Amino acid sequence: MVYKLICLVLASSLPFMFTLHGDFVFDDSEAIIKNKDVVSESWMDAFNNDFWGTDIKSNLSHKSYRPLTIISFRINYWLNNNQLSAVHFKVTNLISHTLCCLIVYNSFIVILNDVGFEKSITSCIDIAYTAATLFAVHPVHVEAVSGIVGRADILACCTFFLAFIFYSKSMRNCKFMISYFYVSTAILLAGISMLFKENGITVLGFCIIYDIVITKNIKTKQLTKGHLNFNIKVIIRLSLTSLGIIVLLYGRWTVMGRHTPAFKAIDNPAAFSDNLFTKLATYNYIYFLNALLVIWPQWLCYDWSMGCVPLIHSTLDFRILCIWAIYLYGVLVVRVIIQNSWNISTKRLLIVTVSLTIIPFLPAANILYTVGFVIAERVLYIPSAGYCLLFAIGFKKILTSEKRQRYKLYILLFSLLIITYGVKSWKRSIDWQNEYRLYISGMAVCPLNAKVRYNVAKVADASHNTEWAMEEYKAAIRLNPNYYQAMNNIANLLKNQKQYTEAEDYLKSAVRLKRDFPAAWMNLGIVLANVRRYDEALDAYKTAMEYRKKYPDCLYNLGNLYLEMNMTKDAMESWFQAINLNSSHVLAWTNLLALLDNSGHLEKAQEVIPVVLNELPDSPSINFAVANIYGKLERYKEAEKHFRKAIKLFGNRVQAIHFANLGVLYHRWKKYDLAENMYKNALKINPNFKSAERNLRSVKKMRKQ
After folding, report:
1. Do residues 199 and 379 touch, judged by C-beta distance below 8 A?
2. Which residues touch 603 (CB under 8 Å, ≥6 apart)?
3. In this structure, how many other beta carbons lie within 10 angstroms of the beta carbon of residue 569?
4. 626: closest CA among 597, 603, 653?
5. Is the CB of residue 130 less than 8 Å from the CB of residue 4?
6. How high is the pLDDT of residue 705?
7. Residue 300 contacts residue 377 (beta carbons within 8 Å)
């Protein structure tokens, strides 16, 4: 047994162990880096907001209520000295996955024992162990393990099977109080699972099916001797479980503010189709794709929205055959259960296994409510356990029906499958190390997915490959003509290239598609300001702030506009407002200090300097601005200290002006040797720096005198 556990731990960890050094990717940014609840001083904030940090009762909320998962992120942050480390988070995910595999293994043993399924004829095969090993290395789990937000699925799975184990104990225990203590514990664990992720509550539905199917197999005499009638106990147990489901769902509904989330057509196109055939056919085809990903995980993609799965509009669409195939398979399974000569234990086990596959998937099936995705591989984490058990049962049947000479061949084939899955998981986990690899891998699977092309454009832009970024943004807009975020981003690239007319066209299209798009309004204001259409720019900035009341970036740009319009007082006020909203806004502080310097408000500058240095002591631009002010105040030593600190902080981004201004300081300070050196340093960077040339000639003359 110990040997098996060690092997299971290795199988669950080796595919991921060498890919832990990675970044926060995709949804990790919104759920962890930008989520204030992860770094909040209050551990209770997570219970007031959704998974992304928005007030759960807000109309803007995603309604994904997973406070315990956020608490687990908060623990990572706390244990790492209040630092966000992707490696720390990924290690925790891997440990959770390994623990989950051990719990799943134990659950499989419980199921097989309860069903009374016969032991394997040979010592080479153990059904529970075979299923758990397959579960441990399955490539469809990579998103849950390597994508940090997938921890919600892993922890929900852990508590899902713990709840099941306790429920099964209640079925076997003959003492009334102990039996219903186990039931109550199972309901509590189901509630905890639901607080990790919503689909955790489905364990109670699975337990009800399990109870109905398995109860007849448990020896009635052992359970009823000297106690309540056996059937009454079953009825009470099922009633308590049903009540638990109602209470938990009502609590969840109340927490959501009694409103369902509002999704967009791009998130789940089939849900917004007006044609009933299109909606039902596409949903059913998506079920087929989910089954295919579990059975044959060849095509894995981080995002399946926006055209990745085109809608089915006609009965002539060849994909209809896939739908018929999956339902034909379902009919055959039912026929086997009803008519086959297999023993009753095998039939019960088939029902349980199929239930374990289907029931946890129901929340993602668009049956009970509309979901905000097309396919999400991480939601298959729990349902795949049912498939793995079903596979192991079939594998055992093959072994027992074949001649003994073929055992080694089948064991070899199974070993090759495990190795293949393990290698596939390892390669896929490499894709999840950073966004560049992840997004490129997505384009290979879903080239028609506008969101995938948009994300590829973002990583191309981040790597300063502007031409590639432009191509991908344009491809995203071709695939989805209403993609206003892509329009905003491509406009920013065009703006940086001073192609203002084209940038304006994209931004105006973006705000036509989404009127309440503050970022696009702000960027439109920047473009209009650059072409000196100041009144229009002012209107654009004010519109942006109508839709986002607290918008420091917009206030910063508004200050720049006021400065261009020679409204220095208004410019200063705008920058102060930006700083009040974001005390670390470097650009607003830098421009404010420069304006105070250039306008001669040096006394006001001296009041501001201690505040900004306390807030941003290691900002090179702030230190440079402070040094210039101190130089004018003839506080030479302090000015020198901040100039040198700024130059050091700028590093390879240092410019000629930085050395030139330090040269001017030494010039005034009559340290001519140092001044000459600084002017020469400036001219090395920019040989055409005229003022540095003049000052260098001047300081040389002074040295000769």
Report:
1. yes
2. none
3. 9
4. 597
5. no
6. 60
7. yes
